[in-house]
Write a structure and sequence with these properties.
By secondary structure, the chain is mainly α. It contains 19 helices and nine strands. Helix 4 runs antiparallel to helix 5, helix 9 runs antiparallel to helix 14 and helix 17 packs across helix 19.
Length: about 500
C-alpha cells in the first residue's frame, strides 16, 4: 500500500518491486491505520492474559527449553529485557547498511499484521530509524535460521532500547544517541515485545532477496554476454530457433531463446561463417537457452517464495482474537531452500560462462589467436584471465553445497531442527560476486574476439554492447595487467549497465 510520497505498511501489500523501488529512491515509511488498530487489539489480548495469570509461552514463561518455567508477573518486563540482552550474541562483520534497512522494513511490515502483541509505538520507533537514516549495527553471523534469526534481531532490539549501536551520517553512535538521532525516545518494553522483535525470518529473507536481486541482473547480463560470445566464436544461430524451444515447452527456455533472437539479428560476422563446415557448436554455446532458461525458472520460484515471506508473519506465538497459538512460522526452511536453489542455479550458469571463455582461448574460431594474444608465445593474452574465471567457478561449486541440508540441535534439544538459512544467504551473495567477475572475464574475452573479427561487424545491438564495454575498458592488443579491467566490467555488470541492451519481452 502506498501514497504519492509515503510507503504505508499494513502487513499485506509489500511487494518485491516496491522494496526495490524504495531502496533505489527512499521515501518515508508509515503504519497503516488498520494496522494500528490490529496491533492495539493484539496488545490488549496479551494484557488480558497477564492480568488473568494465564500461562502463555513467551508472555509469562521462559524461552526455548525453558518454556515450562513460569515467570512471576512482576518480572515480565525484566523477562523481555533479559531476552534481548542475552540473545545479542552476533559475531563477525556487520551486515551492509542496505541489508539492515531491508530487515527493518520487513520486520515492520510483519509486525504491522497485528498478530504479534506489540504496540504501534515500538514499530513507529523502528520506522523513525528508517526515515531518519539511522541504521543499527547488526553482526552478520550467529543465527541458525530457526526460532527466528534471534541473534541478528537482538542487536536490532538493543538499538530500540538504547543499548545498541548504529550508523548515522557516516558515524558510529551508541546507546541513547541512537534514539536521539532518530528523533524518538528509548522504547520501554512490555510483555511479549522483546520476543516479537527477535522472532522472525527477516535477516534470512533480506539476504535471500539480495541474492535474487543480484541474480536477476546477472542472468540478463549473461544472455547479453553469451550472445557476444556467439559472435566472437562465429557460432551458429540455429540453436535459438523458436521451433526447437516450442517443442520442449519450458517457459524459461523459450523466454531466454527469444532474448537471444532479438540480440542475434543481421550480422556480417554470421554471414562470413555461414558455410564454415562446423556442424554443431559445443554445449556451452548451443545449450544456453536450456541452461539459462532453467536458471530463469529457478529465480521465478524463489521470487514467489520471497514475495510470500515479505508479507508473512514469522513470529511465535501468534495473537488471534480468541487464541494465542504457539507454532513454528519462525523456521526459515523455505528461505534456506530457495537461497540454495538460486546458489546452485547461478553456479551452473557461471560455470557455463567459464566454458565459453575457455573456447575463446583455443581457436575454436580460427580467426582468433590462441589465448586471444596478439603474438602468441611472446604474449600470454587472456591465459590467466581464464584461470581466474576457472578459480572462481570452482569456488562457486564449493559454496553451492546446500546449507539447507544441514541442521544442528540447539537449546538443549528443544530446537532440534534448524534451517541454516542465513548461511545459505551469505553463500548466495558470495556466489553472485564471483559470478559477476566470471561474466566480466567472458565479456572482455568476447569483446577482444570481436576486435579480432574486424573489419566485420556484429549485430547492431551487440555492436552497442561492445562499444559500452570499450567505454569502460579501451581496446588493448598487447599484454597488460587485467585485474582493473575485470573489476571495472564486473562493477558495470553488477550495476545493471548491460540491461538497457535487452529488448523487453511482454
Amino acid at each position: 500500500m502506498t501514497t504519492a510520497t509515503t510507503l504505508v505498511l499494513d502487513g499485506k501489500h509489500l511487494t518485491l518491486d516496491i522494496i526495490r523501488d524504495w531502496e533505489r529512491q527512499p521515501r518515508p515509511v508509515a503504519l497503516a491505520e488498520s494496522s494500528v488498530h490490529a496491533m492495539n487489539a493484539s496488545v490488549n489480548r496479551v494484557r488480558e492474559v497477564v492480568a488473568r495469570g494465564e500461562v502463555s509461552y513467551g508472555i509469562n514463561t521462559g524461552f526455548g527449553a525453558m518454556a515450562t518455567k513460569v515467570v512471576d508477573c512482576e518480572q515480565l518486563t525484566n523477562l523481555q529485557y533479559n531476552l534481548v540482552r542475552s540473545h545479542a550474541c552476533g559475531v563477525g562483520e556487520a551486515l551492509p547498511e542496505n541489508i539492515v534497512r531491508r530487515i527493518m522494513l520487513l520486520k515492520a511490515n510483519s509486525l504491522a499484521a497485528g498478530l504479534s502483541g506489540i504496540r504501534p509505538l515500538v514499530v513507529e520507533t523502528l520506522l523513525a530509524f528508517l526515515n531518519k537514516g539511522v541504521t543499527p549495527v547488526i553482526p552478520g553471523k550467529g543465527s541458525v535460521g530457526a526460532s527466528g534469526d534471534l541473534a541478528p534481531l537482538a542487536h536490532l532490539g538493543l538499538a530500540l532500547i538504547g543499548e545498541g549501536e548504529a550508523l548515522y551520517e557516516g558515524k558510529l553512535i551508541e546507546g541513547n544517541a541512537v534514539l536521539r538521532a532518530a528523533g524518538t525516545e528509548v522504547v520501554r518494553l512490555e510483555s511479549k515485545e522483546g520476543l516479537a522483535i527477535l522472532n522472525g525470518t527477516q535477516p534470512s529473507t533480506a539476504l535471500s532477496m539480495e541474492g535474487l536481486f543480484r541474480a536477476d541482473i546477472l542472468l540478463a547480463s549473461a544472455v547479453i554476454v553469451g550472445a557476444l560470445s556467439v559472435e566472437a566464436l562465429a557460432a551458429s544461430y540455429t540453436p535459438f530457433d523458436p521451433r526447437i524451444h516450442a517443442a520442449r515447452g519450458q517457459r524459461g527456455q523459450r523466454r531466454v531463446a527469444e532474448h537471444f533472437r532479438r540480440l542475434l539479428t543481421s550480422s556480417e560476422i554470421r554471414d562470413d561463417h555461414r558455410d564454415c563446415g562446423r556442424v554443431q557448436d559445443p554445449y556451452s554455446l548451443r545449450c544456453m537457452p536450456q541452461v539459462m532458461g532453467a536458471v530463469y525458472d529457478a529465480l521465478e520460484h524463489a521470487r514467489q517464495v520471497l514475495q510470500a515471506e515479505a508479507n508473512g508473519v514469522s513470529d511465535n506465538p501468534l495473537i488471534f482474537d480468541d487464541d494465542i497459538l504457539s507454532g513454528g512460522n519462525f523456521h526459515a526452511q523455505p528461505i534456506a531452500l530457495v537461497s540454495d536453489f538460486m546458489a546452485i542455479a547461478l553456479t551452473d550458469h557461471a560455470s557455463m560462462s567459464e566454458r565459453r571463455t575457455d573456447l575463446m582461448m583455443r581457436k575454436v574460431n580460427p580467426k582468433l589467436n590462441m589465448f586471444l594474444a596478439n603474438e602468441p608465445g611472446l604474449e600470454s593474452g587472456f591465459m590467466l584471465a581464464h584461470v581466474t574465471a576457472a578459480a572462481l567457478a570452482s569456488e562457486n561449486k564449493v559454496l553451492s553445497h546446500p546449507a539447507s541440508v544441514d541442521s544442528i540441535s540447539t537449546s538443549a534439544g528443544q530446537e532440534d531442527h534448524v534451517s541454516m538459512a542465513p548461511a545459505a544467504g551469505h553463500k548466495l551473495i558470495e556466489i553472485c560476486k564471483n559470478t559477476s567477475r566470471i561474466l566480466a572475464i567472458e565479456a572482455l574475452a568476447a569483446a577482444r574476439g570481436i576486435d579480432m573479427e574486424r573489419p566485420l561487424n556484429s549485430t547492431e545491438r551487440l555492436e552497442a554492447v561492445h562499444a559500452a564495454l570499450r567505454q569502460h575498458v579501451p581496446a588493448t592488443s598487447t599484454d597488460h595487467r587485467m585485474d582493473r579491467d575485470i573489476a571495472a566490467v564486473a562493477a558495470f555488470i553488477e550495476s545493471g549497465g548491460l540491461l538497457p541492451y535487452l529488448i523487453k519481452i511482454e
